[in-house]
From TrEMBL:
It catalyses: N-acetyl-D-muramate 6-phosphate + H2O = N-acetyl-D-glucosamine 6-phosphate + (R)-lactate. Signal peptide: none annotated. One of its GO terms (molecular function) is carbon-oxygen lyase activity. The keyword Transferase does not apply. Gene3D superfamilies: 1.10.8.1080, Glucose-6-phosphate isomerase like protein, domain 1 (3.40.50.10490). Specifically catalyzes the cleavage of the D-lactyl ether substituent of MurNAc 6-phosphate, producing GlcNAc 6-phosphate and D-lactate. Keywords: Carbohydrate metabolism, Lyase. Residues 47-211 form the SIS domain. Belongs to the GCKR-like family. MurNAc-6-P etherase subfamily. This is N-acetylmuramic acid 6-phosphate etherase. Pathway: Amino-sugar metabolism; N-acetylmuramate degradation. It comes from the Bacteria. A lyase-type mechanism (elimination/hydration) is suggested for the cleavage of the lactyl ether bond of MurNAc 6-phosphate, with the formation of an alpha,beta-unsaturated aldehyde intermediate with (E)-stereochemistry, followed by the syn addition of water to give product. It comes from Salinicoccus sediminis.
Length: 292
């Protein structure tokens, strides 16, 4: 299995200097990037499948590093795209405690994976994506089996070709990132490759759901000073309004960038802007229709 093999380039890793190790790690990361590009079609098929299903929830299931990366990606969607916390969900073998501590044996239980999926009452309106570098983690296999039996759309992300979880997925992605410089330590380039694929899944789905305008995160939740400044700058740049007008619009909109943009550009009040957004969440389409 590729991820468990010994990397010929790093057989004397302990004898290399710091700079040499950095160079080697960068070279191996570049290889992981190439592997992700090589799976572009499979990644596109998975994302398109989710969009076409119009899945209510995207649920990542994994153990160890793979599970943590799934939880990380899911947890970053609400502040970035103002999604409901239940739209992107990450489950990890051993539960939340496993985010910080190794829970021995948790990943070896198919039953635990099945139970975690069933506890979420997964159904046909959901998509469950199993993540495992080896492609054979029992917890992930159990999660995918339970999801499939419940009628959910299934996807998988592994770092080996011909993996077990690929057989359980409607849309498998196999990013063969190869042996690690530290033998078997898949938190390295295998984990990097997984994170890149997860970035693509969550970002592209939210783009296609009208969560951005141009390349602006117009559904961002301005929950701190930095994000508030970002929100004001977005309003100012999109509408070409001055700083004061943009700040006042953000305040009057209930701190919603999309609402504020429509208020300024269409000269409507908050209630009218929210009504438009309730029918069409994509502000580009609203503005195009208004101009037409």
């Amino acid at each position: 299995m590729g991820t468990e093999n010994r990397n010929e380039k790093s057989k004397e890793l302990d004898l290399l200097g710091v700079g040499e190790i950095i160079t080697l790690m960068n070279e191996e990361t570049a290889y992981a990037l190439e592997a992700v590009e090589g799976e572009k079609e499979s990644i596109e098929n998975l994302i398109t499948g989710i969009i076409e299903r119009n899945a209510d929830r995207i649920i990542y299931a994994g153990a160890g590093t793979s599970g943590r990366l799934g939880v990380l990606d899911a947890s970053e969607c609400p502040p970035t795209f103002n999604t409901d916390p239940d739209e992107f969900i990450g489950i990890i073998a051993g539960g939340d405690k496993a985010l910080r501590f190794a829970i021995e044996g948790a990943e070896d239980s198919e039953g635990l994976g099945e139970t975690d999926v069933l506890d979420l009452e997964v159904g046909p309106r959901d998509c469950v994506i199993g993540i495992a570098a080896s492609g054979r983690t029992p917890y992930v296999k159990g999660a995918l089996r339970a999801a499939k039996e419940a009628g959910a759309l299934t996807g998988s992300i592994s770092n080996n070709k011909g993996s077990d979880i690929s057989d359980l997925a409607d849309f498998p992605v196999e990013v063969a990132s190869g042996p690690e410089i530290l033998t078997g330590s898949t938190r390295l380039k295998a984990g990097t490759a997984q994170k890149l694929v997860l970035n693509m899944i969550s970002t592209i789905i939210n783009i296609k759901r009208g969560k951005i305008y141009g390349n602006y995160m117009v559904d961002v939740n301005p929950s701190n000073w930095k994000l508030e400044r970002r929100a004001i700058n977005m309003i100012r740049e999109i509408t070409e309004a001055d700083e004061r007008t943009a700040a006042d619009a953000l305040s009057a909109s209930g701190r919603r960038v999309k609402t504020a943009v429509l208020m300024v550009m269409l000269d409507v009040d908050r209630e009218q802007a929210e009504s438009l957004l309730s029918e069409q969440p994509d502000i580009r389409k609203i503005l195009t229709t208004d101009k037409g």
